[in-house]
Amino acid sequence: MVTGHGRHYVVEAGDGSRITCHTRGKKSDCVVGDLVRWRASGDEGVIESVEPRRNLLHRQDEWKTKSFAANIDQLLVVVAVEPVFSESQLARALIAAERAGIPSRVILNKRDLPGFEAQRRRLDPYVAMGVEVLELTLKHAPDEARARLAPLLDGRATFVLGPSGAGKSTLVNLLVPGARATTAEISHAMNTGRHTTTTTEWYWLDAARSSALIDSPGFQEFGLRHIDPQELAGLMPDIRAHADCRFYNCTHLHEPGCGVRAAVEAGAISESRYRIYREIRAELAPG
Ligand SMILES: Nc1nc2c(ncn2[C@@H]2O[C@H](COP(=O)(O)OP(=O)(O)OP(=O)(O)O)[C@@H](O)[C@H]2O)c(=O)[nH]1
Ligand SMILES: [Mg+2]
Ligand SMILES: [Zn+2]
Predict the structure, then answer these.
(1) Which of this chain's residues are annotated to bind GTP (predicted)?
(2) What 3-state DSSP class applies to 278?
């Protein structure tokens, strides 16, 4: 399944042709990246079943689950100098990917804007814990961006996630020949005025259909309610590295002999990362 609009889905057949499909039931569990079985019905199609997924990237807000995509090889989180990114949202995206077993990288875009240094510093804890951060100017240095990204994207399906306005679609348009044309074909509204993505969509990077980028709409909320509170520290590499505590079930909030709190005091875990840990943990285990 390559994209969905309301209750319509676009499915790509083995020969690369795309067809609008419906599902049989009212509600469907079909997400972008799913391999589906479908049959023709008039000039449209009906999705009969969804194959088992290799992985599923999703978030779980207080009331609802939002699936991003299935069967992806890696996540590319795009943040920018402007609009100033929320570190909490970035951290949450990385935790969700870690939980889903999906490797991730970060792009800090709009290196051309003033304030770049300050935003770059905010990513220091991520670089220190082993996250690869690519600093790019997608709009004004497209050739450099292409050269640096191409080897990372080769042969993989890469999900592009990040806040609205960070440059996700700019990235897709940079790398996908005719991406705008494809968009226009599916929905004219998406190609008028300022390009703001409203649906998740799968784009092939090559004619052989071996590499793909999945563009997605910006998000505001990123709930992680599908994660067990005791599991959280293990999904944050810097916290995990210091979770050597007196109590095996230490919450890293107040217990004596806590390796995490000692590391925060010693400066080995950044204040902001620990604040985010506590913020998420409070959502997962209130009280
Ligand atoms: N200064 C500067 N602007 C950029 C750069 N890359 C993208 N932009 C601009 O940032 C704005 C937002 O880019 P988009 O690619 O639409 O952002 P998006 O992440 O797809 O946003 P949503 O679809 O709303 O989630 C556009 O006006 C781009 O031209 C850059 O490297 N430098
Ligand atoms: Mg977009
Ligand atoms: Zn502890």
Answers:
(1) 109-112, 162-170
(2) helix
The number of beta carbons lying within 10 Å of the beta carbon of residue 173 is: 21
- Cα 287 to ligand 2 centre (Å): 38
Pick one of 3.40.50.460, 3.40.50.300, 1.20.1250.20, 3.30.980.40 as the CATH number of 56-215: 3.40.50.300
Three-state secondary structure call for residue 192: coil
Identify the CATH assignment for 3-50 out of 2.40.128, 2.60.40, 1.10.3470, 2.40.50.
Answer: 2.40.50
Helix (H) or strand (E) holding 213: strand 212-215
109 is in an annotated binding site: yes
CATH code given to domain 229-284: 1.10.40.50
Q: Would you list the domain boundaries of the chain?
A: 3-50, 56-215, 229-284
Q: Cβ(139) to ligand 1 under 6 A?
A: yes
**What is the position in ligand 1's atom list of the atom closest to the CA of 195?**
16
Q: What is the pLDDT of residues 29-62, one digit of tens each?
A: 789 999 999 999 888 999 999 999 999 999 998 8
Q: What are the CB-based long-range contacts (under 8 Å, 24+) for 147-151? A: 149/175, 150/175
- pLDDT of 96-126, one tens digit each? 999 999 999 999 999 999 999 999 999 999 9
